[in-house]
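User: Study the chain.
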Amino acid sequence: DTLGRFKSRHGTYFVLGNHDLEVETARLRRTLVDSGLIDLGGRWLEMPIKNGSVVLAGNELPWIPPAADMQDAPPPSAEGGPPRILLSRGPGQLDWARAHDFDLLLAGHTHGGQIRFPLIGPILLPSLRGVKYSSGIFHAPPTVMHVTRGVSGRLPIRLNCPPEIAKLVLHCGNWD
C-alpha cells in the first residue's frame, strides 16, 4: 500500500534483493506490480522520453538470477544509442554495469554502513567491496554509480549516518 502511492511521470520501478528472499518472492513481485510499480528484475526495457529514449534494466544478482540480458538492447550511448540506467540492489554489480556500458547505476543495500565514525567513516558494510562504496556518487567509466543510504535496515541503529531518500535529477546532454 505504501509503495503503490509513489507516482512518477515515467513510472516507478523496482528490483528485489537479499531480504526479499525471506518471503515468497513471486507473491511479492505480483503485489508490487498490482500496486502499480514496474518490475525490472532480470530484464531491460526501452522507455520513450520526449524526443528520445532511455534503456532501463534491473540486476538482482547475486541473490536472484539472472541479470538483464543486454544482447538485444539498443547500442550503448557511446555508440549513439540511448542512455542506459541500471537499477541494482547493491554496488557489487558495478563491474557488470561497466561491462554492459551502463551510464548510470542506482544502488542501495549498504545502508551507508549504519554506523560511521568521524574521520574514519563506516567500519562494516554488507558488500564484497568492503566500505569503499558505502554511499555517495562514484565514477568508474563509463558508469556513474549512486549508492543511497536508504531509510531503514534490519537493525534500527544509525550513528552519523542519517537515513536518506535521494532525488536525482537527470538532464539531457553530454553524460561525460
Notes: The mean pLDDT is 87. The first strand starts at residue 13 and ends at 14. The chain has two helices and ten strands. The helical segments are 25-34, 94-99.
